[in-house]
């Protein structure tokens, strides 16, 4: 086109566009924009590692510097995805080692990473800076040793909640003495002790260290020295927060915290001895994020702490906080945006703490900026949910888990349809919703009707039949991820809304009523979807077609069926033939 | 309470008891069918389906129809509930509104028993039966004030409540202080601290790498040999399990020390009394104690020690 800007100018303009959505939009304008954009894209996000192949990625985007990939479905967090499902990052690393010598950042979530993989990463990318592995598994501390030894410019090593084979703490000593580039280190998930002296030296020679999250094995006595070596810390995860009561340790700790003027986030707090909590008072006022979800301290201690954190924006806590503590939170923390309350005794039958729906109601009343909620409790009422919905129409994420499955409204003994209905009706910006309690198809009618911005929906033990699923699939325009377990949804709704599935990232259904025959039909009708039947009873071909399958995972893909399926997964074939997969 | 029957395509009428054709009944009906108030313990028994096991027969359960009706299979036109009627009633029935009916109805999650050999077998009456058998546990609960007589059997359902295993593993061993026991349930190591009286620092040993007491003692021997005053015993390692403390003592430190451990209850015990597996499950830390302090632990052991030296 005669009127278009020179490439260089366009490229320069595009360099200001960083969101994936915008970048994707830019690439669709015309062929030349597509071409220019693909050469200057530096960062890519792959929400489902099987939606595209590494080959396709490197072919289209030759100059990537930062990759983020997600693997297993979310329900893998709760052991619903069998071992061996997949999510191997190795093929990606191999492809990138050839195509992206200048790769700097790899961020993974729910993927299987091996030590070989980590070694390959450490040797292939000369300028490698950031490795974040969230809920990953398959590697050991040997792999970590390769990374820290070979990546000379390492800035971030973040192992959040990964399952690491912890052979020893020796890996940390592999950081070369010349390493001064560290900005973020998170080893909270590791069990074994690292060398404290190596850790201290590492911390004090990295002037840009902003985030340090220790593991439980780092004793409290070591903390003051570490803090003094890094007074610029913005985020700290303590180790075990307990020691015998010694006044000099308490005052030492207190003084050390006083020096940390930049501290905004605190976490860790395993094995808390309450007497040591006052040590963090110096930083409370500056805290925006506080994670006490491993701290088994009681409500009075929690409340005392919270009342000093007037600027708190995010609080994760155990239900030991109780309604009384949440009242105090509602009174003191007017900037609160996110609240997560975890159960201290999730498998107990009886209620062990005085935490009810009231606590959440108070917070919804008192905290005008509250937008993100994860709340475990043992009872709920429609009235409370309606109140919450009316108080907080600005909610974006609402995840409620009433511990007893199919629990009714404890006041009226009715289903909680009306309550959740009020949530979706009032909270127009709701993007994520997790349901619990007794729910009929009616709640799905409300969701389909009102939840137009909903992107992720989690359903468990809910609904009456296909109509419920149909409401959701036909009504929720923005739906990207749907995960369902133990609900009576079957073939009819799926087949009637088959086309919808291509507009979503993925659908997970386990212990529902989807028949094998329907899966085959779906696989036939929708070639751009992978319809994966997961069944540990052996091949579904050995049972009647009307037989329901155990688990189903459907996702859109341009990669075709995957080749790394384990023996208990069958991908439905386009031709409607005997499906691919090991019999 | 009106039932929200919005399901136009649901054929079955709203009745209290499911009416089923004989073809739909999966399992034979025990005699106690009509006795709705009998607490059927067998029914509420905790069971897990192992590979190849057959799910036990279930009593058909009465159901308060709230729309939990089997769906016709529109796909193939076959006359069949979306789930076999008994299965559906077992899984989706819930405690009715104020019903005084007791343990009969099933409420709550049912553990999945995916192995069902009956599936697809040639039962002529059940040509259309569902193979999806929710075997395993059933839960009858006393929630919402109903059914006060039901025992609250808490069957644990996989993945419910939805808590990450990372969190479960972190919070669960709250009894463990610090890193006394680094136990990874997934990869299978059990590191426990080993202290020896008089030694300047502690060690850690992985109990999983030792299969028996003999290996443990040899591991400890190699760890602490630098601290022994006398020579280590040159005796061969005994073959048998259940090594007595006196033998361990011989092997590790000559005659002066005794190997003890702290168990889950916080008590200090002599190593070697219980089977190896039981020991590894309950051992929190090890301590190589001076013989003089071991008095009171097991007097006859001390006699043995003295008699051997």
TrEMBL record, chain A:
UniProt-listed InterPro entries: COI1_F-box (IPR041567), F-box-like_dom_sf (IPR036047), F-box_dom (IPR001810), Leu-rich_rpt_Cys-con_subtyp (IPR006553), LRR_dom_sf (IPR032675), Transp_inhibit (IPR041101)
Cellular localization per UniProt: Nucleus
Record SUPFAM superfamilies: F-box domain (SSF81383), RNI-like (SSF52047)
One Pfam family hit: F-box_5
Record's GO cellular component terms: nucleus; SCF ubiquitin ligase complex
Keywords from the UniProt entry: Auxin signaling pathway, Developmental protein, Nucleus, Ubl conjugation pathway
GO biological process: auxin-activated signaling pathway; pollen maturation; SCF-dependent proteasomal ubiquitin-dependent protein catabolic process
Molecular function, one GO term: auxin binding
Metabolic or biological pathway: Protein modification; protein ubiquitination
Keyword NADP (UniProt): no
Keyword Transmembrane attached: no
F-box domain span: 5-46
SMART domains, per the entry: FBOX, LRR_CC
Protein name: F-box domain-containing protein
Taxonomic source organism: Daucus carota subsp. sativus (Carrot)
């Amino acid at each position: 086109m005669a009127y278009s800007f020179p490439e260089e100018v366009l490229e320069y303009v595009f360099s200001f566009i960083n969101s994936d959505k915008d970048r994707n939009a830019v690439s669709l304008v015309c062929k030349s924009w597509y071409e220019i954009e693909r050469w200057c894209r530096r960062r890519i996000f792959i929400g489902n590692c099987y939606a595209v192949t590494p080959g396709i990625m490197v072919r289209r985007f030759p100059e990537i510097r930062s990759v983020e990939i997600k693997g297993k479905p979310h329900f893998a967090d709760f052991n619903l995805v069998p071992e061996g499902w997949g999510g191997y990052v190795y093929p990606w690393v191999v492809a990138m080692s050839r195509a992206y010598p200048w790769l700097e950042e790899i961020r993974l979530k729910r993927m299987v990473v091996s030590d070989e993989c980590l070694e390959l990463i450490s040797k292939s990318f000369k300028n490698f800076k950031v490795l974040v592995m969230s809920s990953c598994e398959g590697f050991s501390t040997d792999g970590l040793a390769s990374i820290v030894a070979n990546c000379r410019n390492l800035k971030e090593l973040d192992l959040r909640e990964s399952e690491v084979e912890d052979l020893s703490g020796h890996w940390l000593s592999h950081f070369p003495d010349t390493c001064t580039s560290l900005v973020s280190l998170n080893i909270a998930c590791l069990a074994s002790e690292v060398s404290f002296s190596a850790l201290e030296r590492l911390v004090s020679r990295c002037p840009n260290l902003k985030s340090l999250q220790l593991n439980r094995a780092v004793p409290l006595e070591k903390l003051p020295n570490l803090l003094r070596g890094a007074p610029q810390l913005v985020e700290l995860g303590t180790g075990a927060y307990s020691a015998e009561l010694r006044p000099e340790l308490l005052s030492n700790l207190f003084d050390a915290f006083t020096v940390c003027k930049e501290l905004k986030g605190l976490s860790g707090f395993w094995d808390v001895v309450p007497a040591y909590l006052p040590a963090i008072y110096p930083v409370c006022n500056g805290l925006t994020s506080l994670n006490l979800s491993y701290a088994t301290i009681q409500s009075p201690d929690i409340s005392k702490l919270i009342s000093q954190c007037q600027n708190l924006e995010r609080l994760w806590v155990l239900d030991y906080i109780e309604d009384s503590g949440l009242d105090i939170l509602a009174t003191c923390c007017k900037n609160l945006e996110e609240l997560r309350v975890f159960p201290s005794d999730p498998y107990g039958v009886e209620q062990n703490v005085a935490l009810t729906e009231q606590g959440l109601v108070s917070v919804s009343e008192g905290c005008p900026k509250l937008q993100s909620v994860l709340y475990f409790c043992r009872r709920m009422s429609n009235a409370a949910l309606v109140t919450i919905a009316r108080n907080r129409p600005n909610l974006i994420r609402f995840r409620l888990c009433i511990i007893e499955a199919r629990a009714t409204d404890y006041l009226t003994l009715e289903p909680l349809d009306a309550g959740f209905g009020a949530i979706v009706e009032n909270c127009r910006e709701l993007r994520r919703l997790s349901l619990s309690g007794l729910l009929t198809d009616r709640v799905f009618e409300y969701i389909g009707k009102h939840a137009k911005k909903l992107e992720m929906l989690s359903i468990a033990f809910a609904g009456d039949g296909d109509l419920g699923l149909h409401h959701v699939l036909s009504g929720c325009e923005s739906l990207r991820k749907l995960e369902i377990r133990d609900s009576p949804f079957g073939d009819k709704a799926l087949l009637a809304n088959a086309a919808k599935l291509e507009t979503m990232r993925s659908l997970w259904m386990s212990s529902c009523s989807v028949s094998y025959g329907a899966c085959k039909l779906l696989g036939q009708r929708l070639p751009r979807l992978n319809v994966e039947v997961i069944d540990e009873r052996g091949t579904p071909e050995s049972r009647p077609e009307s037989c329901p399958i155990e688990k189903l995972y459907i996702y859109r893909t341009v990669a075709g069926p995957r080749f790394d399926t384990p023996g208990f997964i069958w991908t439905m074939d386009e031709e409607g033939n005997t499906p691919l997969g090991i019999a | 309470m009106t039932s929200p029957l919005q399901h136009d395509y649901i054929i079955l009428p709203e009745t209290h008891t499911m009416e089923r054709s004989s073809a739909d009944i999966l399992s034979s009906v025990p005699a106690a069918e009509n006795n709705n108030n009998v607490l059927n313990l067998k029914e509420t028994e905790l069971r897990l389906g192992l590979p190849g096991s057959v799910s036990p027969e279930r009593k058909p359960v009465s159901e308060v129809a709230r729309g939990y009706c089997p769906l016709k299979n529109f796909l193939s036109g076959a006359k069949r509930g979306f789930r076999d009627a008994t299965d559906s009633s077992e899984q989706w029935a819930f405690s009715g509104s104020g019903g005084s009916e007791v343990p009969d109805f099933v409420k709550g999650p049912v553990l999945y028993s995916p192995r069902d050999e009956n599936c697809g077998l040639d039962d002529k009456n059940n040509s259309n039966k569902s193979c999806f058998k929710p075997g395993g546990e059933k839960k009858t609960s006393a929630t919402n004030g109903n059914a006060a007589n039901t025992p609250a059997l808490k069957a644990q359902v996989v993945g419910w409540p939805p808590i990450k295993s990372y969190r479960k593993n972190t919070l669960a061993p709250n009894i463990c202080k610090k890193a006394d026991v680094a136990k990874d349930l997934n990869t299978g190591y059990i590191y426990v601290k080993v202290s020896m009286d008089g030694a300047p620092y502690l060690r850690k040993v992985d109990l999983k790498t030792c299969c028996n007491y003999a290996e443990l003692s040899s591991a400890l021997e190699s760890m602490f040999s630098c601290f022994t005053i006398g020579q280590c015993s040159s005796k061969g390692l005994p073959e048998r399990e259940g090594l007595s403390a006196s033998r361990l003592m011989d092997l590790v430190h000559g005659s002066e020390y005794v190997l003890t451990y702290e168990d889950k209850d916080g008590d200090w015990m002599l190593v070697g009394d219980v089977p190896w597996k039981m020991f590894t499950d309950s051992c929190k830390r090890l301590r190589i104690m001076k013989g003089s302090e071991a008095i009171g632990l097991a007097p006859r052991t001390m006699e043995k020690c003295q008699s051997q030296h």
